[in-house]
Amino acid sequence: MKLLFIGDVNGEDGVKFLASNIEAIKKQYKVNIVIVNGENAAEGKGITSKIYKDFMKMGVNAITMGNHAFSNKEIDKLLEENANVIVPANFPTYYDKGYLTIKYNNETITVINLLGRVYMNLPLDCPFKTGKKIIDEIKSDYYIIDFHAEATSEKKALGFYLDGINGAILGTHTHVPTCDETILEHGTFYITDVGMTGPLDGVIGANRDLIINRFLDGRPSRLVLQTGRMQLNGVIIDFDLKKITRINIKES
Ligand SMILES: [Fe+2]
Ligand SMILES: [Fe+2]
Predict the structure, then answer these.
(1) Which residue segment(s) compose the domain that 192 sits in?
(2) Number of domains the chain is built from
């Protein structure tokens, strides 16, 4: 089985850039399953029903979210309708909406979304214990965990804590890809951050001039997304060949 995971899709331009590249990636790597982090798809914050449909048209099997899960209220309807979207399972009361089992041939793949607590400032349950609980409760052939977290230390620690599951622990949220993709000692695929899919020349997607000004004068300002060149970041996991490959595409 070959799985494509796409990191934080940022804004409508990010969605469009993914749409214009995904077929070629699927064809080149003979991808069977696609998972996308969509927490920034709606103008940088959250997801809408329209964007959800766009992802479905691209053949996406599951969408994960993050700290911006509830930034657009259309998420409520999607969750109510049991759409293929999950939010971090360690948001209190959202445990049941934090994982999703999909099927490929005769095998099951359980996708789990967790949110880090370091530098996150949200009232979250423990991502370590929540992840373990889901894995213990839900029997599945594969587990794919999107660990949406800021601190590299927290992501590394969760990777080692859950190493041994048949699957992958894939970091998202920082929007900056790391080059530490690996297979951990007990066989689990791991990367600290997949990176984002959206504006290439912004500051983690946001308009760079506004961010520079924030650092210069310290005043809060309403952010907009950077326009111009785009990037796509993801990973391909080949479970048969036991290989994890980064996909980093940048417009020139
Ligand atoms: Fe993000
Ligand atoms: Fe995030």
Answers:
(1) 2-250
(2) 1
Q: Which residues, other chains included, contact 236 with Cβ-Cβ below 8 Å and sequence gap of 6+?
A: 2, 3, 4, 25, 29, 31, 244, 245, 247
User: Quick one: how far is CA 33 from the chain centroid?
Assistant: 14
The ligand that comes nearest to the alpha carbon of residue 195 is 1
DSSP at 109: E
Hey, CA dihedral for 95, 68, 191, 156, is it positive or negative?
negative
CA 174 to ligand 1 center in whole angstroms: 6
**Among this protein's residues, is 173 annotated catalytic?**
no
List the CATH number of the domain containing 76.
3.60.21.10
Task: Quote the ligand 2 centre to 148 CA distance (angstroms).
Answer: 6
C-alpha to C-alpha distance for 100 and 61, rounded to whole angstroms: 10
- Whether this model's pTM surpasses 0.90: yes
* Per-residue pLDDT tens digits for 64-107: 999 999 999 999 999 999 999 999 999 999 999 999 999 999 99
- Separation of CA 66 and ligand 2 centre (Å): 5
Nearest ligand, CA 8: 1
Backbone angles phi, psi at 20, to 5 degrees: -80, -10
Size of the chain, expressed as the number of residues it contains: 252
Picking from 99, 127, 97, the residue whose alpha carbon sits closest to that of residue 111 is 99
Specify the 3-state DSSP secondary structure of 186.
coil
